[in-house]
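As promised in the previous annual report, we have extended the structural survey to additional targets. Below is the entry for Slipin family protein.
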Amino acid sequence: MRKVSLRIVTRPIQSQGIITKDNVSVDISAVAYYQIVDAAKSVLAIENVAAAIDQIAQTTLRGVVGRHTLDETLSETEVINANIREILDQTTTEWGVLVTLVQLKDIQLPDTMKRAMARQAEAEREKRAKIIAAEGEAMAAASLGQASDTMMAHPLALQLRNLQTLVEIGVDKNSTVVFPAPLMSTIGELGTFLTRESAAAAEHPPVPPVPATDGREAAANGQPVAASN
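The corresponding structure token record, generated without further manual editing, is:
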């Protein structure tokens, strides 16, 4: 008499060195769950059902993963688990065993591959950042074009924008001095006026006044002398 357990059994699959479809060496371990559904077959059809399932699981894991690339192995684990379980079921059915679940447990990558994948991920993020920045610049340029059209249609809007800019600059008592465009034009006109007046004064110099003298010097010079009491 042999006693057979009909409970679900957990069978770890040792780590296997596997070469993927794109020639990358990885170490993968897994775990399988199976249950004996026919006690007579599990005793009569095979000598040691546990050892047989362990060996067939290892070879199946190596064969299934070897048909996938590294990216597929990392991203499509559910598909790989289903393929391994399906192949095991086809073999273990004759032994009175039902494989209920297979899961990849650990995937170990070489250090060089880890660094290469890190650089690839960093480059992908930089590409996305540049694309987002370029899209933002395009949207900003379109908005600035619309704003310029509005200011051309309404000249007063530009003056209001200038005043708003002065308010923003004057926040927090900073020492920035801003000369608006109208003030600068006024200063330029004032400078032109002063230059013009200086040139006119140079062309027509003023006549100096005659200094005051006494009566004898005036009489000698033939000038009239005012009489005083």
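The first strand starts at residue 8 and ends at 19. The longest helix spans residues 111-153. These points will be discussed at the next consortium meeting with the crystallography subgroup.
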